[in-house]
Structures are given as structure tokens and as C-alpha cells.
Amino acid sequence: MRLIIALLYAIISIVFSIPAHLYFAALFKKDKFKSWEKSRKYVGRFFKGLLFIAGTKIKVKGEENLPDSAALFVANHRSYFDIIAMQSVMKKPIGFVAKKEFLKVPLFPLYMKDIGCLFLDRKNVRAGLETINEGITNMTEGLSIGLYPEGTRNHGDKLLPFKSGGYRMAEKSQSPMVLCALTGFDKIFEANKFHMIRSREVTIEFSKPYYPAKMDANERKEFYNSIPDKIQAMLDNVEKESED
């Protein structure tokens, strides 16, 4: 029943929000940041509605670590609800790097674009570099970016190999990088029998900010290589706490 209600809510909200999208698109041409901020609030309300219907309760750890400036948020990827929850807890504009295939979904990509999402063509290296450069530009203009280096949703206990190309967005924009551990998200939808939506409590944990642009080449390489282990340690710690 939750799944049906969520789908109806999403379809109705998106259709009736077309005038809002047209407004954000026009505002974007005049003032990018103002457009991102207004769309963040608008889309955030839509996402919070989905989370309410799903019965999702979010526990946030390390909120005090969130920087005042734009940042690159690097997270593990468990569920479609990752972006919904991440965007809903942010108090500043954030877009996400998503697969190009999302552009085939009717209407929904319009609102992903409104909040500043980037659509990555994983089969085209040149197009991928252009997307990364767009992200660098957007970050210098105040937009945070959410990155899922596993490249696809992972329902296993261990992380998939991380693709590090997107890290350049933090380095080249001289922005901080925050590591994020998302725990329990696939239990909302993907891990359930018949893919039914279930009421769950999930956790988002933010690490302290790191500054790749301030590291020398060797230190930066070592840090990039350590990111999967750092996020895995955060995930394991949350799992351990839930068992105690």
C-alpha cells in the first residue's frame, strides 16, 4: 500500500509542479545560486513527503561536520532513497551525479536538473570529463555535489570498487570533501520481498571535512585510496552500535 501511495504522490506532485520547474528554469538564467536554493526548498518538501509516506526515520550523525561552503559529499550507494534522504537533510543547495539513463524517465529529470544534478555518460570518456568540469564550475558557484563512486546500488555487506574520477571536483574547485556512510537504506525498498516499501530507521553519518587541494600529490593519492576503507569503517561502526 505504501508503494502505491508513494507512486501516486510522486506522479501527481511532479505533474502539478511543472509551473514551478518553468520558474526555476527561467530564474537559473538570471541567478544560478538563487535558483538552486529555491528549488532545494521546493524539491526538499516533495522528498520529505515521500519519506513520510514511506515511514522513513532518518538519524543524522556528524551534522556538526558540515562545512559552510560548497562541498563534495562522497557516499556509498544503497538505494533510490539515498538521494531523497540526502537532499532532504541538507540546509544548502546540493546536486548529485546520476546515471545518464535517468534522463529517459518522464518529467522527473526536470527536477533533478533544478537542484543541480549532473547526468554522467559512463560509456563516453569525453562526455564524462565534460560532466566533471561542469561539476567543478558549479561547485565554485556555491553548489555542493553528492557523488556515489560505486557507480550503482550495492546491496552487499562490502563496498564495490570506487571510481575516483569524480574526486577532481573537490580538488579543482578547492572545496572540502565530506565522506558519508548511508546505513539501512535498501531495507526501505530494494531488499524487501516484492519490492514493497517498509517503514525503516536509517542513518546518515558525515565525516570531518577533508581538503584535497591542500594536500601534496602523494598525500592526496593516499587519501583517495583510503576513502572506501574510511566509509566502510563508518558503516561497520553504525552496524555495531545497532547490535549493542
Description:
With 244 residues, the chain is α/β, with parallel strands linked by helices. It is built from eight helices and seven strands. A seven-stranded mixed sheet has the order 1-7-6-2-5-3-4, sandwiched between helices. Helix 5 links the parallel strand 3 and strand 4. The longest helix has 27 residues, at 217-243. The radius of gyration is 17 Å and the shape is globular.
Global mean pLDDT: 92
Number of helices: 8
- Main β-sheet description: 7 strands, mixed
What share of residues are in beta strands? 15-25%
Query: Structural class, from secondary structure content?
Result: alpha/beta
Helix content: 40-55%
Q: Summarize the helix and strand pattern as letters.
A: HHHEEHEHEHEHEEH
List the uncertain runs: none
> What general form does the structure show?
globular
Task: Describe the strand arrangement of the main beta sheet, using strand numbers.
Answer: 1-7-6-2-5-3-4
Number of strands: 7
Termini gap: 33 Å
